[in-house]
# Entry
Amino acid sequence: MMSVYGLFFLSDGKTLVYIARIDRKLYVIAGKEKVGPYDNCGDLTFSPDGKTLAYTAIIDGKCYVVNGKEKLGPYENIYYSLTFSPDGKTLAYTAKIDGKWYVIAGKEKAGPYDQFWVITFSPDGKTLAYLAKIDGKWYVIAGKEKAGPYDNCGYLTFSPDGKTLAYKAEIDGKWYVIAGKEKAGPYEDSYSLTFSPDGKTLAYKAEIDGKWYVIAGKEKAGPYDKCDGLTFSPDGKTLAYTAEIDGELQSILMYEGNEYIGSICNNSIIYFSNNQIFIE
# Structure
């Protein structure tokens, strides 16, 4: 008897990949190839070009990472965080060895860490960034650099050119947004870190005195009851988002230092000002 789950097509649209349970064992099927048997397997992850399939597998109680034809391990545990570099040449993941967590990227191993969170490559694939807990404090690791210690941190976001890493960090009970060498805040909280397409402007929403504001570079808009959906125009000069004001949801544009009712549509901005409609 066979059961099937986790159906995927490779980017070529011709190769079907899935996990099959046959006689209480699991197999990974990719087109005409069948690999296994495994006690368990999952986290099917494709390289960006769709040519390499990686996944986790348990064999006789030990954890492995299968990357194409390679079988890596054994490990005590693997957190389901398989991440390919943009060029597909490097697979990064986290594995537990002798009770400690390590971040493994290709042939390199970093650690040990007490805990970790979020691993991501820069768009150019040159820098691997992640959050790591060491002796009760959190750090942001980006390549060979380590920033911290922080009480907490999150939302790792690279600029499109990969040169600037932004994230939020908690210090003494307050939250800050850190982008490269710059630190903004303090805030009660912050979310939705978003770079403009040219990487010059970082936008996010921040809570101040119980109200929400939208911060974009040196500009601040608000206060709002809620705000969400931060989206830059293709030229990076205009930021669109939704905001709730006195219970009413509105579509807002931050354009040339001013707030307008409007939106981005088909690479153009449409907004209202002085009872007129403008299209830029």
User: Anything to note?
Assistant: The mean pLDDT is 89. The longest strand covers residues 2-9.
